[in-house]
Amino acid sequence: LDQQFKDDYSAEEIEADVRVLAAFDFVEPDYDLRQVLLDIYAAEVLGLYEDEVDTLYVVTKGQFSLLDRLTFAHEYVHGLQDQNFDLEAFVDEEGLNDDEILARMALIEGDASQAMSQYLVLHMSDISNQDLQELTEEAAGEGDSALAAAPPIIGETVLFPYSYGLEFVLLLYEDGWEAVDAAFLNPPRSTEQILHPQKYLDGDEPQLVALPPLTDTLGSGWTLVESEVLGEFQTGLYLAQQVDQETVEQASEGWDGDRYAVYARESSTVLVFSSVWDTETDAEEFVDAYRQYAEASYRGVGQGPREGELRWQAAGEATLLTWQDDQVVIIVGPDTAMVDAILSTLDL
Question: Which of 49-58, 246-255, 260-269, 328-337 shows the lowest per-residue confidence on average (mean pLDDT)?
Fold first, then answer.
């Protein structure tokens, strides 16, 4: 894994990801993302399938325990998925947005987890009480502490494909493995569809949201760090940093699409987050939740000079929340003048 990080995850990419995470308040600007991810994978990873070399690994402690057998079954399914659906093409990092990739990973891991569960059930007669006790002890493992120590945006995102993916696949599996296989030919398009499988079954796909380029508007020295989709799941994690869970679930549930962009110049950062919602009521629920978020962050109520607009300001940072119909836009920048300049470029 360490070598894979060196080969596939450059220092520049890590720096950009930390910049984005910090723009959403998920981590501090000097966060050591690489080490945290390595710590999690070192403690948590029990097995691994490498699609590039058609090889699976199981991490053992010298004895092939029941947990190792279950891990083998899980990773073997990844091999079958790769053989039948070409996992490298299925998770196309160049052609898919981040939220769509997370949704596809949920299908991949949910499929393997369901097959692993069936393996356990089919072999219960071969399993001793000692095997089950060891399984419980091993499953508790060290990984929980590493995940618990990580910010939710990392820990919860790592777990998402396994927990929510299994729930998603279990619903498909009501119509048999053929229905699960069919999902690889018609993959989920968003974490919204994983969180609410009926939306997948109904063909409720996310809207595409576009943002204009801002390098000319921002001026000399500003560069685009990232333009991506946050998705319903991580939008909920964003709000949950300052808002109670019941409000978070209500506010994020009506998500219908988004696009964010993060720009940087030296230590300064600009965040533009544009989202669309199923209904105006859903948009208003998100507005109310973000208002709570900003009031907690800035320790004060926002100023509303115009209808459909709230503003907060602190030393070196200004935030604008603006909404119209089913669209909501958040702009965070170093000062009010820059926020207003960005606002003037948006189609609201």
Answer: 49-58
CB of 348 closer than 8 Å to CB of 292: no
| Angular region, 257: left φ>0, alpha ψ -120 to 50, beta rest | left
Give the C-alpha separation, 329 to 322, whole Å. 5
Predicted model pTM:
0.94
DSSP 90-132: HT-TTTS-HHHHHHHHHHHHHHHHHHHHHHHHHTGGG--HHHH
- Pinpoint the alpha helices (H) of the chain: 2-8, 11-23, 33-44, 66-85, 87-90, 98-122, 129-140, 143-149, 152-173, 177-185, 191-195, 197-201, 215-218, 231-239, 245-252, 280-298, 336-343
Q: Determine the Cα–Cα distance for residues 332 and 219; give it in Å rounded to an integer.
A: 16
* 79: amino acid identity, one letter: G
Which tokens hold the place of 228? Answer: 């991506």
Kindly tell me if the per-residue pLDDT of 142 is higher than 80. Answer: no
Q: What confidence tens digit (pLDDT) does each residue in 82-117 have?
A: 999 999 999 999 999 999 999 999 999 999 999 999
**Kind of pairing between the strands at 327-333 and 317-324:** antiparallel
Tokens 């796909």 sit on residue: 205
Strand bridging mode 47-50 / 255-265: unpaired
Strand ranges of the sheet holding 317-324, from the earlier edge strand across to the other edge: 223-228, 255-265, 268-277, 327-333, 317-324, 309-314
The tokens describing 188, both together, are: 């989920």
